[in-house]
């Protein structure tokens, strides 16, 4: 691979965090009638910048190929995601008094699952969503949406149309942008003078601590800490004034930011406290990242050992879910239908397809009741409680749930 420079500070990257080999695009599910077609694989190698300590993977495929008109992820199919969205809106309305006189804009608004909660309160909303098929679902539900990638150009168009954001939302999107400077510069442009931006992203420190290597895939260009995001935001004239540590994705951060020149929101002590904990945990130390690869390979061996032992003991193993993270895990571990017979998913957009790379078939959840497997491997481990509750009848079938990370664990 040719030299790769940091997408924020342009430093040449040489320090490996983990090399996961080659993997297909994690959300490119294979239609049954396309099984004979060639499937591209791309290097999946994470580096850390030894200047700003932004963890990142090189851009291997154009974003237009990743976030295309057949994008398979729809937020509304997860009960926990919907609950999180409702609670977020309640919190923002209560804390900042957003009402009918304010404009809310969400970047990467998906199928409108979050904005509908503001709309029900009469708050004007607009979604910015690059995937046309997903945005169409939002529009059908009455959520105005523009099919665009967000950055400086889109921000200027919005301002030219008389739109600025009193609240700008970006949940699980900052990691998805190949040009992070363009994205954050766009936030600066479209944010109203006293506007607030909230951004949620999986916390890098949780990934390092709990071996969550499966969150590394090609549409996640960056892996974020408060330490690195503060530097990026400050460079573009934005100040992070508060931060919440939240549960989604195995542990995420929600940052609150404003214009640096806007002093209406004082900086919370939580910002300094978390920054100090990150530094103590080694977020700005190359040595901390060198240990991660060792942890990842150990958890890979543990999973393979479990699956091989189950196979040799004549036990059947299937999976639950078809998340992008599961595709990273299965491809890195080299697990196919020889060890996992099939998986199931509640999304009809994924059913009757094959997982990318491994070609494991995806069925509707009732398939588990029909086949009565010995073990069900939960690929979206971040919502394991939701899945176990929904599939409570599994216990009556004699099946047991298994979680692959942070360590292989039989949980029921």
TrEMBL record:
The keyword DNA damage does not apply. Residues 6-67 form the Methyltransferase putative zinc binding domain. InterPro entries: Methyltransf_Zn-bd_dom_put, Methyltransf_Zn-bd_dom_put_sf, MeTrfase_14, SAM-dependent_MTases_sf. GO terms for biological process: methylation. Residues 249-406 form the C-methyltransferase domain. Gene3D superfamilies: 6.10.250.3100, Methyltransferase, zinc-binding domain (6.20.50.110), NAD(P)-binding Rossmann-like Domain (3.40.50.720), Vaccinia Virus protein VP39 (3.40.50.150). The keyword Heme does not apply. One of its GO terms (molecular function) is methyltransferase activity. Keywords: Methyltransferase, Transferase. PANTHER family: BLL5978 PROTEIN (PTHR43861:SF5), TRANS-ACONITATE 2-METHYLTRANSFERASE-RELATED (PTHR43861). This is Methyltransferase family protein. It comes from Rhizobium mongolense USDA 1844.
